[in-house]
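During the first year of the project, the team set up a workflow for recording each protein of interest as an amino acid sequence followed immediately by a discrete structure-token representation. This format lets reviewers and collaborators read both layers of information side by side without switching files. As required by the reporting guidelines, we include two representative entries from the current panel. The first entry is reproduced here exactly as it appears in our internal archive.
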Amino acid sequence: MKTALFSIAAALALWGCGRQEPVNQAKVEETRQVEQAAEKAKPLSTTSLTQIVKEALQSESSLDARRIDIENRDGVVALHGRVQTEEQKEKAGRIVSSVGGVKSVDNRLTIDDTASTGATTEPPR
């Protein structure tokens, strides 16, 4: 009897360990596409990779991804636009280079400390 109860308890414990939190299906599908492309040594489509890069930048709250334009040519991603600091420029480059399917990053972002404030500099009168 004790053996049967122990077996049931162990089975329930193992079942509970196997449960996972719900996942974002879109992210799972993106990851699968990247993995499949890597396995086949076939690059992602330009549109797919560009979208994944854009979403990766948008997920970083310290960056205003709306001010960053992405150009992708066969996995060579160029970043154009403005950020507030050198740290943000470097962070954007690191984020993009970590995306599967990106071969290299040409970080052409410029530093503009008025990027978030919207302030403009008027010439003296």
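The second entry, processed by the same pipeline in the following quarter, appears below.
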Amino acid sequence: MHYLDNKTAYLNALLDKDVYVAQPAGFAVGAKGNVCHILRAVYGCKQSSFLWGKHFAATLAATGAVRSAADPCLFVWHHPTHGAICILVHVDDVLLTASALAGIRAIKKVIATAYTIRDFGEIGDFLGMRVIRDSATRSLTLSEACYT
């Protein structure tokens, strides 16, 4: 199980509506009172999270990954060589699992080609949960000890 983070995730999606903002202090182009036309989803826009999710889902679908009917955050890519690869997405955080490390490397390569990512490698913490894997007993334990 590996963990990725998409850096500047929202900026990868184009806005679907016209959004204008006042020019920031210290940045003045053109006449006084001009505004900036925002083209990309930015943090703070209401629709940014939705548009980023739609954009990322389209990237995964282009590889052949299929969104789960049970959970829209889960995608499964049936790779022709490496078998089933599970991709769990929460905003810009991505959890990857496959039966072999080669499968994880394959999906990492696809995602890294499309986006700037931080690869945290083998998972330790994810969304505030401690993830403990025990290969000997083939078990996975989630702990939220930081909340107790």
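For the second entry, the following points were noted during internal review. The two ends are 25 Å apart (CA to CA). Residues 2-147 form one domain. Both points are flagged for discussion at the upcoming steering committee meeting.
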